[in-house]
Amino acid sequence: MATLSPLLVSAGEASGDHLAAHVVRALNRPTFGLGGTALAAAGTELHRHVQTTARTGFFAPLSRLPALLQTANHLLHLAKKNGVRHALLVDFPEFHTYLGRRLRRQGVRVLWLAAPQVWAWRPGRLRSLQPCFDRLAVLFSFEETLWRRAGADAHWVGHPLAEVVPLTRLQSRQHYGLPPDGHGLALLPGSRSQQVRTMLPPMLVAASAWRQQNTAPCWIRLLLSDSLPPRDQAYARALARRVGCDTLSISSSSGALPALGAFNVSYCTAGTATLEAALAEAPPVIVYRTDPISAYLARRWVQIRSMGLPNILLGQSRYPERFQQDLTADNLLNDTFALLQNESRWHTAATELRATLLPSESGSMGTRTARLLESL
Question: Would you say 13 and 50 are in contact if contact means Cβ atoms under 8 Å apart?
């Protein structure tokens, strides 16, 4: 790039905010746009916050359509006003399909990081999404092949979670002030309001039963992202206190992986946290529940059997998955005891997972993506 014109960055969810921050830290230029705590800490000037955009379910974006359109149009106005030449969009396809098209019509070159998961559902989007971007940066190697076959300029940049050097279990427990002995169970209900209010209650029931039935020393912690709105944090903390569960606050700038190293097992809402837990050798029970209509459409549209990222990447169901009616306290309890048997196998699984996430190209995910922006 000949000049250091400002870069528009748009990350509409907590996981995307974390990914975008890696790229911004690798760039030497002003950035502004939509994001959260991690992007703000990386120096991005936020004009909208992820708390106004993050929702779950197939129909959740419809309920927020006016606010999303207002946010998109505001970013488009700022892009034109500031002479933006390049934009980095991260995940959040419901929003970025619209924003990407409009930015390109204004002459902005668009790099989309963390491409829509067309391999999981609605593969017909492979071609229909291409007018939304100029170049793709994908997190998984098989995505590069898939998109290139469809004619897209796609590049595998790897996943930043594979770059984290984990602490030992004892070091992690000491760092976070957790008990040095016994089995630890981590509860990660998600970073969005609906996820916490839907997934946390059965997690707490199962965790409480596990603690009562366990003859060995054990303890439980609720891990809450600081990107969760304060009202939802208060709700989750109050619910956890009722069963004697303390809370550990997780910074969105570092993610949950460092803290998860302290735990022996975890309950994780489907998403990036499941990958963090698997890499930290705190094997997850992967859970998800949504409204009945969204669940029905998912069964019709989803192309894969597994919903958990670790199982997808490993090509087999090593970690239990509990969705919809299967998400019960009894099932979670049984899965917990099963995962705690032969714990050494989770080190092998973590090693295999890390190998699937790291390209041979030098640098970090952030620097590799920054290079793609600079050459766009």
Answer: yes
Tokens of 262: 């302290």
Closest to 37 (Cα-Cα) out of 251, 258, 255: 251
Long-range CB contacts (within 8 A, 24+) of 297-300: 297/58, 298/58, 298/121
Q: What CATH number belongs to 169-356?
A: 3.40.50.2000
Of the two residues 305 and 104, the one the predictor is more confident about is 104
Is residue 31 within 8 Å of 43, Cβ to Cβ? yes
Mean residue pLDDT across the chain: 89
Share of the chain above pLDDT 90, in %: 70
- Domain borders along the chain are 7-158+359-374, 169-356
pTM given for the model = 0.86
Q: Structure tokens of 367?
A: 């620097």
* Matching fold, domains 7-158+359-374 and 169-356: yes
* CA distances (Å), origin 373, targets 10, 134, 329: 14, 10, 46
What 3-state class would DSSP assign to 23? helix
Q: Which contacts qualify for 210-214: CB closer than 8 Å, 24 or more apart?
A: 210/185, 210/333, 210/336, 210/337, 211/185, 213/333, 214/183
Please report, in angstroms and rounded to a whole number, the separation of the first and last CA atoms in the chain.
Answer: 8
Architecture of the domain whose range is 7-158+359-374 = 3-Layer(aba) Sandwich (3.40)
Whether the per-residue pLDDT at 58 is higher than 60: the answer is: no
Least confident residue range of 200-209, 293-302, 338-347, 360-369: 293-302
| Helices marked H in the chain | 14-26, 37-41, 60-63, 65-81, 93-105, 125-128, 141-149, 169-175, 193-213, 230-241, 257-260, 272-279, 292-301, 309-314, 329-339, 345-356, 365-374
Q: What would the pLDDT profile of 143-163 be if each residue is shown by its tens digit? A: 999 899 999 999 999 999 999
pLDDT value at 177 more than 60: yes
Predicted confidence (pLDDT) per residue in 228-248, tens digit: 889 999 999 999 999 999 999
**CA dihedral angle for residue 191, residue 195, residue 198, residue 201, rounded to 10 degrees:** -20
